[in-house]
Design a protein that fits this description.
The structure is a single chain. The chain is an all-alpha fold. It has one domain: Up-down Bundle (Methane Monooxygenase Hydroxylase, Chain G, domain 1), CATH 1.20.58.1000. The chain has helices at about 1-30, 45-75, 80-99. Helix 1 packs antiparallel against helix 2 (about 45-75). The longest helix is centred in the middle third of the chain and has 35 residues, at about 45-75. The radius of gyration is 19 Å and the shape is elongated. The two termini are about 30 Å apart.
């Protein structure tokens, strides 16, 4: 499990760095006094949509890693009441993500 977590952590760090780059690019474009929204009015929307997609992908990846690795492991080790608590917590995460 440790190798899998290390690999997943590296993937998540790479993803967040790419997302930060996208956000910084948007920040620069919006902060630029010379920005011409009439030139391509949809460029900012495209970039915002790309950031949203990247964040959703990262959330999905993290939730999947948690469910397949940590959640299953905790359920196998715990008693029935612990398993129920873990599943309830996981369902709360899913509900928040769905909003």
């Amino acid at each position: 499990m440790a190798y899998s977590c290390t690999v997943e952590r590296k993937k998540l760090k790479n993803r967040i760095n790419r997302i930060a780059g996208q956000v910084n690019s948007l920040k620069s474009k919006i902060s630029d006094d010379d920005i011409d929204f009439e030139e391509d009015p949809y460029e900012i929307i495209r970039q915002l949509t790309a950031v949203k997609g990247a964040l959703n992908g990262m959330i999905t990846s993290y939730v999947e890693h948690y469910a397949k690795g940590h959640l299953v492991s905790k359920i196998k080790k715990g008693d029935d009441s612990e398993a129920e608590v873990q599943i309830d917590n996981f369902l709360e995460i899913i509900k928040v993500f769905g909003k």
